[in-house]
TrEMBL record:
Annotated SUPFAM superfamilies: Putative modulator of DNA gyrase, PmbA/TldD
Protein name, as recorded: TldD/PmbA family protein
Family to which this protein belongs: Belongs to the peptidase U62 family.
Organism name: Novosphingobium rhizovicinum
Domain of life: Bacteria
InterPro entries: Metalloprtase-TldD/E_C (IPR045569), Metalloprtase-TldD/E_cen_dom (IPR045570), Metalloprtase-TldD/E_N (IPR002510), PmbA (IPR047657), TldD/PmbA_N (IPR035068), TldD/PmbA_sf (IPR036059)
Amino acid sequence: MLSPQAATDRAADLVSRARQAGADAADAVYVANASEGIQIRLGRLEDVERSEGEQIGLRVFVGNRSASIGSSDLTPAALDELAARAVAMARAAPEDRFAGLAPEELLSHGPFADFDTFDPLDPGAEALRAAAEEAEEAARAVSGVTNSDGASASAGSSVFALVTSHGFAGGYRGSSHAISASVVAGEGASKQRDSAWRHTRHRADLPSPAEIGRLAGERAVTRLKPARVRSGPMPVVFDPRVSSSIVGHLISAMSGNAIARRSSFLLDKLGAQLFAPSILIIDNPHKPRGVRSRPFDGEGLPTSRSNLIEDGRVTGWLMDSAAARQLGALPTGHAARGSGGAPGVSVSNVHMAAGTISRDALVSDIREGILVTELIGQGVNGVTGDYSRGASGFRIVDGVIAEPVAEFTVAGNLLAMFAQMTPADDLEWHRPINVPTLRIDGMTVAGD
């Protein structure tokens, strides 16, 4: 794996070769990852995995025609061939009047801020194994746990670099550390499975492996002997484990590409009152040690903190340069790149601001409702906003979270769900999208 500076130099070299091969404009990305993981099951070593890879991707423009190509061979001869093939592909591609590099006057320029996304500590295989063993032992020690799907611990690092032919060059590195455990509780046909995990940039920010394991075990046991629920309209409360997915649907619908294609349920909703005025959703790519923090986007534009939802209203669309040209606007610094293909759109560290009441207070006046802790399936229509997901969780009876329930569906429409949404004050900060417990009144539950 190259250093960020060496990776930037290699990408710059490829851009130069593309221009020499006949490209009018070009950009190149270098992406490298290395990781090591240990899997333990029933106290025994089940798997050891070590992976390393690096790729370089090239996008070229010949007039309004473009092509993208990638390779894991970074030798000079391979880069020459890559550049020549990319230019030949672009000349044969159809014209696209919206294609092109980001506006030159908007490019970010270094030195770039350091958001402490890289942890130089390499724990090594023995420490990873000890962490996985500790997590599984803690999970299996929970009364009622009868089997294990295993526990794992991993560590990794990455480097990303981007260079464009019109003046941008930059790179940065990151790291990742993770612990997870999954166990089974109960016997026979009444078994239930659940898990817990945590992912951070720095190893020091991880909870103890025992805490992860104990949480996995407790979650599995509390799901034993689930009941069925009656069908009908009722309040549905989404645990933080799943509430982030609802904001994820919002973000997908805010993509400028979806708006340009007129395939978003938010079409014509810019500035509309979608949520209660108190709802605030923030995207912060500059969060220290954030799992998605980055100093620039996938087109070399600066990133910045922004309010996606403010006073309950959509403030704008998330746009790369192509979408911005289609919509007659400016790109927003949300472009994302892999080692191949054109940029897409991605947010960074997103959170919904915490509410003002506790989780207990949020459910205290619910006579009959559901707390959802797991969602199943992908029943969401991004064009209409219709929402229907399989779920499991717990019944809420007279303001108290009661027995577990399973095999039911929660349904509604996302626009109506947004309008009826109330957040609790229990915001957590360890996911890419962090959302507190959410209560949504008026949803339809389909059970017995």
